[in-house]
Predict the structure.
Amino acid sequence: MLFRESPEKFWNLIASKYAASPIADIAAYEKKIAKLKSYLSPTDHLLDIGCGTGTQCDDLASNVKQVTGIDISGKLLAIAEQRRGERKIDNVEFIQTTVFDARFEPGSFDVVTAFYVLHFFEDIDAAFGRIHGLLRPDGLFILETACLGEKGKITGKFVRLGGKLGFLPLINLLTTRQIEQALEQAGFGIVDKTKFSESNDEYTLIARKLK
């Protein structure tokens, strides 16, 4: 099965295995959630791009008014709905769609989050431009992604080849510097940059809409 043109099929195929995988560094995850909550307000409407099984949506829900989690995988979202119900959380909704959905109007959200999903966007500038438009003035964009452009050449070649052949979804080999430059060009200012886990080189960036 080839996934370049139908990445949702890839995520549907691995949904159960993905959902069963434990958080690799639970201490780092808890520190991250605690810090993110300090930036949230009870009146905020938060959009989570690529929400997967909804774990972070549910964990942040108590600090905002509403969470909208979106993902392209119906099977991942079915798991997210089940877990939301088990936790009895009533201010989270899940929608199978993308950030470019025309139903999302400009200035609809106070906070947009994107965790480990941005490297699946072929055009990162278009994605950041769309997110900028969806945010209200002074809104926050919180992101964390796999910067595969900073990995070894062998890893990069393997990922690039897998994407081109269709055995993996298309993956953009980003670097932290590329992401920071794209944020600046899109009209964001970085207000925080933190690496919560020593086991990887990924940073969590918190950026504010400047214009």
Observations:
- Residues 5 and 46 are 29 Å apart (CA to CA).
